[in-house]
Amino acid sequence: MNSSDLDRLQNDLSTIRAVTGGDLPFDGWDVRSTFVTGCCMLLPAAFGAAGVQSRWLLLGSAVPFVASVIMTLVYNYRATHPGNVCPHEKRKEYRIGNLVTFVWILLLGGFWFWAKRSGAPPDMANGSVLFILGLQLFVDGLYNSGRRAWIAPGIAAIIGGLIWPYCEYFLFWTLLWSFTGVSVIISAVVMQKQLIVRERLGDPSY
Question: Are 89 and 146 in contact (CB under 8 A)?
Fold first, then answer.
């Protein structure tokens, strides 16, 4: 078997692993952190549903969510450092994901600024940005097995973008945090199921 045959075989194996979810860019810690983040997102929703009118209290209720996100980012940054033992797919996903996120923030920020300058109502501009972000998450989740968990947050963002122009502040606060929190918890469940499938396939890296 020559080198071209080996390369072709390796590509075929990579394709099979990608289709079956063998090359998952996350592990058990990511599942747990995603679940915790989703639960933290339900706290601001609970404050809104309880009728809290103080915006400072509402913002304070989101502190656990912000803390969980920062903890996840710091952990993954350290875990994916080249000097540490980390699956290649997770390291690749984390680095590319950071770059793509940064580019998307710039693009969406530019679109939002252009919409505002064009005279669009603020709620319409904000809703459009959220809708576009949700659409990107949804489509990417459909076509990438390693990002299948993005589908539920994408749907939540699409719904949030559609209802933003028609809801007053406190109602939108409650609905958006509720939808997003539930969708992130669903994402954690999807990720856990994918890890279970990988374990059953006998992936030694599990």
Answer: yes
